[in-house]
Design brief:
This protein has helices at about 30-35, 65-75, 100-120, 125-155, 165-185; strands spanning about 5-10, 15, 15-20, 20-25, 35, 40-45, 55-60, 80, 185-190. It has about 190 residues and is α/β, with parallel strands linked by helices. The protein folds into two domains: about 1-80, no CATH class; about 85-185, no CATH class.
Length: about 190
């Protein structure tokens, strides 16, 4: 891997680094094959941060922007991180809606794929990459919110009561999570 290579890290962050994971081939479902736990250790921490020196990193993990500041001091050339990634309101202590998290994850995954592919093929910098991500995420938050509005309108509910309408809560929650992720994107280093 050359010094200008792009690294994409999709994982969970802890205050002292990025968590590692284990892959369990014998487990049936895709979701349960990847296990992120404290006992798997840290994939990246202060002791091995030097391995990222000269690299361009996109790190999709909660509060990875804070980790990016440490990475810059260790020699990372550019870093795209996130301040907050809540896939559902359950992170705020409320009862989760089982449909919200998969929808938000699907949109974030598509946004990352599209923006990174486009940025790489058009030789865009990290600032432009982050703008593409924000545009994609904001656009899809609007689409989801409008889907909810249209459903509420078809059922004879007023637009202003969308947040209260049982069928509209899913759409509002998903759109709010996507906007929260978009707002938290940070570009650090050589943009």
């Amino acid at each position: 891997m050359g010094e200008d290579d792009l690294l994409l890290i999709l994982c969970h962050r802890r205050p002292n680094g990025i968590l590692g994971c284990s892959f369990k081939a014998e487990v049936g479902s895709h979701r349960s094959r990847y296990v992120y736990e404290e006992n798997n250790g840290l994939f990246i921490n202060q002791d091995n941060l030097h391995l990222l020196k000269g690299k361009k990193v996109v790190c999709v993990a909660c509060d990875s922007a804070a980790f990016g500041r440490k990475a810059l001091k260790a020699g990372v050339s550019a870093f795209v991180g996130f301040n907050k990634i809540n896939f559902d309101i359950s992170c705020e202590g409320r009862k989760p809606n089982l449909n919200v998290a998969p929808k938000v994850k699907f949109i974030l995954r598509n946004a990352l794929y599209w923006a990174i592919t486009y940025a790489k093929s058009n030789n865009l910098n990290f600032e432009e990459l982050s703008l593409l991500l924000k545009v994609y995420l904001n656009r899809h938050a609007d689409i989801i919110y409008n889907e909810g509005k249209n459903r509420a309108d078809k059922k004879g509910r007023e637009y202003m009561t969308l947040k209260k309408a049982k069928s509209g809560k899913y759409y509002v929650n998903a759109a709010e999570r996507i906007l929260e992720i978009s707002d938290g994107i940070e570009v650090l280093g050589n943009k």
